[in-house]
Design a protein that fits this description.
By secondary structure, the chain is mainly beta. It contains 6 helices and 17 strands.
Length: 253
């Protein structure tokens, strides 16, 4: 199932995409997932970010090649940081380059959307907590990240967490462990890797994070970026693609 969040006259609405049409999910994405009446055609609707998380938990240096390109060691345990919910934007929304930074970079990622409230889950039960997957872009002010002793400022600007275009359900744990993740800027390929190259796989990350904090329905886990990160300039179009999900494109201003 492809789950979307769309703008309507009555406010944001959850829906399921069926044959190019969006059908309302009355119970939202965490209920029965039984689709009701049509909201409209997908091409005629404005997509919102497909998640409204209480928190976005990110994993740093989860691809060895990305750690190497920054001259950093591969962590022996997942390196966690948070992005604020205010950083989330929809497909097609503008990534705004802040005046405080002189170098903002893209980071394509597989994003997991939590489907149920969970705490202290084991790795063998971790995938049961996932609603689905989507595309994420962990936009980063690299100069600020490097100058600060922690990463909140460099990662936390408004518009620095594009998500979408939808949540795709039904992927098994093994399948998610071998998906291609890529990023293009103005049609030029900059990043491409398989999730097989992750240092810590998705189920391990869910279990590890849940030992620290309660995960709520709709929370997002960004699983790390492969090598090839690079700068964004005003006028760029940056596209993140995850195999089996689709493409997330945002202009840069």
């Amino acid at each position: 199932m492809h789950i979307v969040r769309v703008a309507t006259e009555d406010g944001p609405a959850w829906g399921a995409v069926e044959d190019g049409e969006v059908r309302r999910l009355p119970d939202g994405p965490f209920g029965s997932l039984e689709a009701a009446e049509a909201v409209g055609l997908l091409d005629d609707l404005t997509l919102l970010a497909p998640a409204a998380p209480t928190k976005i938990v990110c994993v740093g240096r989860n691809y060895a090649a990305h750690a190497a390109e920054h001259g950093a060691d591969v962590p022996t345990q997942p390196l966690l940081f948070l992005k604020p919910p205010s950083s989330v934007i929809a497909p097609g929304a503008e990534i705004v380059l802040p005046e405080l930074s002189s170098r903002v970079e893209h980071e394509c990622e597989l994003a997991l959307v939590v489907g149920r409230r969970c705490r202290s889950v084991t790795e063998n039960r971790a995938w049961e907590q996932v609603l689905g997957i989507t595309c994420g872009n962990d936009v980063t002010a690299r100069d600020l990240q490097r100058s600060d002793s922690q990463w909140t400022r460099g990662k936390g600007f408004d518009t620095f967490c594009p998500l979408g275009p939808w949540i795709v359900t039904g992927h098994g744990e093994e399948e998610v462990g071998r998906l291609e993740v890529s990023c293009t800027v103005n049609g030029v390929l900059r990043q491409k890797a398989s999730t097989e190259q992750m240092v810590f796989p998705p189920a391990f990350l869910i279990a590890y994070i849940s030992q620290v904090m309660t995960l709520e329905p709709g929370d997002v886990i960004m699983t790390g970026t492969p090598s090839g990160v690079g700068p964004l300039q005003p006028g760029d179009q940056v596209t993140v693609e995850v195999e089996g999900v689709g493409k997330l494109t945002n202009p840069v201003t």
